[in-house]
Design goal:
By secondary structure, this protein is mainly α. The chain is built from 7 helices and no strands. The chain has one domain: NusB-like (N-utilizing Substance Protein B Homolog, Chain A), CATH 1.10.940.10.
Length: 147
């Protein structure tokens, strides 16, 4: 857990994942291609919290494995759909969840999916069923070392 800058209050795993989501989402826009600069800017802009170590590790991991993660996601999209058609919120959320499923042995797959659905509900007006469906298919069909 990361400490609160003002009160030494720990940051929850959900809050860390939310920080990672916000950074991954920002990376989807042109001109935001340096993850380390984005982390530094976010760290300076959060009034109460530093960017958590978990968020930093996750964002750096997502960026390092982006093509692989997108390939996994794309395998479970409906026919005719491509990564480029996925709304940015959904894509950022799914990249984090698939990264956790594949590389984070401490996070159960069901938690990754549930947290992804919760983030989707919070940040989009669309139905989170799309994200849940794709991630459910990933969980059922992919074999990850963490299992």
């Amino acid at each position: 857990m990361t400490e609160n800058k003002n009160e030494n209050k720990p940051v929850s795993r959900y809050e860390s994942r939310e920080q990672a989501f916000l950074l991954c989402f920002e990376m989807l826009f042109p001109g935001n291609d340096n993850i380390y600069e984005l982390i530094e800017a976010a760290d300076e802009s959060f009034e109460d919290f530093s960017v958590s170590d978990y968020a930093k590790k996750t964002v750096i991991g997502v960026e390092a494995h982006k093509e692989e993660l997108d390939g996994i996601i794309e395998k479970y999209l409906k026919s005719g759909w491509r990564i480029s058609r996925i709304p940015k919120v959904d894509l950022a959320v799914m990249r984090i969840a698939v990264y956790e499923m594949k590389y984070e042995k401490t996070v159960p797959v069901s938690v990754s999916i549930n947290e992804a659905v919760e983030l989707t509900k919070k940040y989009t007006i669309d139905d989170s069923g799309f994200v849940n469906g794709v991630l459910g298919a990933v969980a059922r069909n992919e074999k990850f070392d963490s299992e």
